[in-house]
Amino acid sequence: MNLISIPAFQDNYIWVLSDEEGRCVIVDPGDAAPVLAAIREHQWQPEAILLTHHHHDHVGGVKELRQHFPGVVVYGPAETQDKGTTVVVKEGDEVNVLGHKFSILATPGHTLGHICFFSFPYLFCGDTLFSGGCGRLFEGTATQMYQSLQKINALPDDTLICCAHEYTLANMKFSLSILPQDKAINDYYHKVNELRAKNQITLPVILKNERKNNLFLRINDIDLIKEIDKETKLQQSEARFAWLRSKKDNF
Ligand SMILES: [Zn+2]
How far, CA to CA in Å, does 72 sit from each of 45, 47, 66? Predict the structure, then answer.
């Protein structure tokens, strides 16, 4: 399997997995044009489209792609039913794509119906987990998002986090503002800064690294708790997560 990212809009990535026969699966095609160009370039035969949630920058290209490739199966959560989804999937379902089983994880928070697709090592997590950060809470609660991130955090160490936006540098600037002395955060910030200075992608990332670099996966970290304690005493992990998320919203 070969994994490629297609840049779209300002900072979106549309992920494409292809096999040796050139069959491919496209994840969250918010825009059809760059996908059609890549299909022509690589001579792919699209077999399926995976949708993580209903936002336009993730689903906007689906209907046009289906006009070009009427046989394509579009898997998505119920909230994408009117966006071109042909098979609605939910937590616990498994779909067979390119001969690989993808399991569906419900990950509400960014939207209420948000799902992730997992087939080791690939996790297509849309706008749930970003490198160094997590999605905004547009529809769900902090507790829902916290639990969704816990679900992702329980996946194997070498899971490849394929998220949908290039937000890493901004996320690490925020993380530095919270824990300026943290070695992992400093090291990762410098690495990401160099990549972005050369206009290079920072993704995908490996879950075991993200556990060190991403404060939203370090909610019970002693240094983070000390930092929160300066402002307020929060006993619950969910409450500390909510504190961190609202700090990021106002950063
Ligand atoms: Zn979104």
Answer: 9, 5, 6
